[in-house]
User: Fold these one by one.
Assistant:
Number 1:
Amino acid sequence: MKFWRAPVRESNRIVDPIKRAKNHTSRLINMQLGKLSSITRQASLDFPALRRMHAFEREVVVLTLGQGTYEKHIQKLRKVYAMLHNTGKQYERECQELRTKQEAVDCGLRCVEELRKIVDVNAGTLREAANMAKVLRGLPHVDLDKPIFAFVGAPNVGMLEFFS
């Protein structure tokens, strides 16, 4: 251990308390956005576009969910993501223009409250998307590279006449 070295002061420490509060609030807003909007964004990106699916998969999705339901749910999910992201960034820009430490803290609290309201208002949309994902996960997986054939009718058709 070298005792003659003085501890190095952090160079990234912000001395001005107002700038420090603004920075802290911006990081708080970004953390909340990271939790909320990234989840909705990733969920909306995990659903492939219907036109990019194989014809068989497309028909299974349409027959399972109904015509237009799949696209409608994905659009709603993307709108929720956009609302969360735009609200967070708007409050972050607003926070950078404030002049006092208390205003910066209040701005961060207002942002978190607004994000919570958006999630509460759109909770139905998020539940519908989760239910849609659950239904689609329950469908059987078919390897589309292998040929598909199926028996039509029950396997025991005509067995009574055969044995009598």
Number 2:
Amino acid sequence: MALANRHVLYISYNGMLDPLGQSQVIPYLKELSKRGVRFTLLSYERAPAFTSEGEQRCRVLRKELSQFNIEWHHLRYHQRPSLPATAYDVVAGIRFASRLMKRKKVELVHARAHIPAVIALALKRKFGIKMIFDMRGLMAEEYVDAGHWRANGVAARLTKRTESRVLRATDGVVTLTDVLWSEMRTWPDLQARPVVHETIPCCIDQNQFHFETEARKARRSELGVGDGLVLVYSGSVGGWYMTDEMAALFAALKRQRSDAFFLWLTTGSAQTVENAMRKSGIEPTDYAVRNVQMLGLHFTVPGFRGSAHRR
């Protein structure tokens, strides 16, 4: 179905004040809105969004999104206890989204990942609306691999059962890779019926990244690394992000290049990085951790990445 002039309800369990929402949701919606798609965006925001500072950021972002004909609503994200908190969020999302459906002429629901897909499935059954399951990845398998869930535990089994129901009902599927889709096409839930599919890999906004010699020198001077080799990691730490393995890799690099320096850019815990580097025998003078907060994400990350070694 052509999307121009269509009204889409986009549901994200990630917050729009978080780095992921800022980099992987908002830019896409803005570009699609330029092509005539009208969005109502529903997200789940963490506790900082409900402080006085967070509420001010929400007002600024809401005004910014409205300029692209994107109407943004948000609910509070609940984390613990895990299953009851998630169930509460799903019920709250179904109720809120149902009210939106009654007030607006929504023609399609785009569910970003598994939790929003449960909400979208409920809306499809209640209102007969089409839905897209933006799968992102194999949620149950990823949580098991990371050690967060047991393979035969309640959370993993419930997630796979829900995933199966969503796949049997969805009108479209988005995956991050062609490899995942080629595997999914063999699943019984997707056989014997037409399903629209699109692979949309993660990407960057190249307009945010410019190599400037003087800026690079300034960053390197700030870090005190001179002309040495600088390795930069930008992203989350801990859990399944292989922080220990990256520290071990740098230790091996350090044995080959004594001038090597590791710069970590993250919104996560500096202590997590420090513990990993200590376990690999890395001296504190051979690395730095910069906490890249959401407000400065798009400005700070490209600037620090410019300090990395270039070939």
Number 3:
Amino acid sequence: MKQKSKPENSLQNIDIQNLLYDVSLLSFKNFRLRDFLKEIHKRISGLMSAKNFFVALHHKTTDTYTFPYYIDEFDTIDPETHLKLQNTLTDYVCKSKKAEIITSEREREIFKNKFQVIGEYSPVWIGAPLFNPTTNEVIGVIALQDYENENAYNLKDLKTLEIIARNIGLFIDRIRTLSILQESEERFRTIFKEDKTIKIVIDQKTGRIVEANEAAFEFYGYDDLTSKYIFDINILQPQQVRSAMNRAIKKSINKFNFRHKTASGEIRDVDVFSTPMKVNNKDVLFSMIFDVTERNKIEAALKESEQKLNEAEKIAHLGNFQFNLKTGETNWSDGAFKIFGLDQKKDKLLSIEDFYSFVHVNDRKLLKQEIEKSNKQNRTLNTTFRIIRKDNKTRYIHKIGKINFSADGKTKYLFGAIQDITNSKRDEELLLQSKKQLEIANAAKDKFFSILAHDLRSPFTSLIGYSEFLIDDIEELSKEEIKSFAGNINESAQVVFNLLENLLQWSRVQTGRIKIDPEIYDISHLADSTINLLKN
């Protein structure tokens, strides 16, 4: 018996050695993991019952398993699915780090009837942990099972499987890593080629564009884009482009604003994000390019519009504002800051409390009531109030505002404009004063004309009376009487002339054409003259 078993052991050892040799050769071929495991399965089938064979890989971070290779008479498992296998034979062998043949009896002993069956139940199961000899970590399990013969596996099979598992663990881990890298590279290339973002790969040493995706070819319009250099499309001087590349390589900066030239000669504004990396052992810069020409045009137009608005606000003494009626936060334009005598660069943004502190104390309460009323009634605010600026100057402000809601419809904003109407207010006050003065002047004029009419009437009565006497009775009158009447007529005429002269002087005073020079005047002579006129 012993002499007979020795050759069998020797043959088995030779088979194992041949298998391990084949495995080492297979690991250096460009195999995918599943193809490699398929070859392992084929060779193990020549050593033991292997109708049902699988390899499970353990993922430490999630404590889950995937089955890159699973051949079974009854069941199938998706190789991409991560499974939790607590209280299973696979998990037991992986965590115990020991190869074992497990029968139904042994299974009950291990799990005390708390085990979990994945797929069809088998009376015998044999498994061994897969080790990575470099790290001495268990990376998974290689296992076989037989659904018919409980005695399908013996200790020699277990030893054989254990030897195979210990030797192929490193190869499996290596191929799995290479497979992951290959899949990752394929995904990257797919994304690189098909993504609509403009992407190019630049040789760090030469600046040559070694690769570009379809979006890049379409954007730049060059059929020979991958034979051009980055200096051909960047309008900066070559030394400036090289300086930017060096900053990207050193990772001191990875975002750049450039202007690139297309095949048509058009210059486009672009944002470039560059990252250094290795591709096929070559140092390159991977660059993603975004066309921002239209955005820059819009920003420039907005900036110009803002400048014009600020200039218009400055000319019209206008400013705009926004109050958050919930939080009290405010937003002021430069024109609004200037109206309050503030500098937007030096002074902090005004809160509602700061705003009210500038309002004249006599106007503050009324203004608050107006804003609250506008808020409650959701109507336009239109009011005038005074402010006391930092330089202690009083200014009149006209405020127009409207209640708006935020996008979510919850927060209320008071948005509007303010205007410094101090000059208009002063002009209005001057106009009011002029109106009052004109009313006084008109009243004085009316009174004056009333008096003048009365004063003119008396002399003219005398003139008419004396002249009628002369006309009717001149033949009967003596020379002395005629002379007396003529003297009275002359005196009355002088009175009328003096009244007219005074009227002319008064009109000149009213129109500002003569300077008023008040002096003391004895009116007794005027009174005597008037009395004599009336007596006569």
Number 4:
Amino acid sequence: MKQNLLDLEPAAMTAWFAEHGEKPFRAKQVLRWIYKNGESDFDAMSDLAISLRDKLKQLACIQTPKVMREETATDGTRKWLLDVGTGNAVETVFIPEEGRGTLCVSTQAGCAL
């Protein structure tokens, strides 16, 4: 089974890269691609060696939670129920405001939408 890199905190990702024969800074590079650039395709991570990209495609994935249900209110508020695995789900709510938005993420699995 491939390792979902989104399941790893930065220190754990650094350890995972080391376990697979890579230098620790590789974790920071991949984290930057994921969280700064919003990238989930290893082939697009152009500052990684092709051999590392190929290794990552074999051993890892970047899999976001599946949206189980989505609702949109008349005021633009959006709710998502996300499958976080092992039969658990969390609710996420986006509340649009003038010039900005607020995102609320449940910290407890099993909440109803």
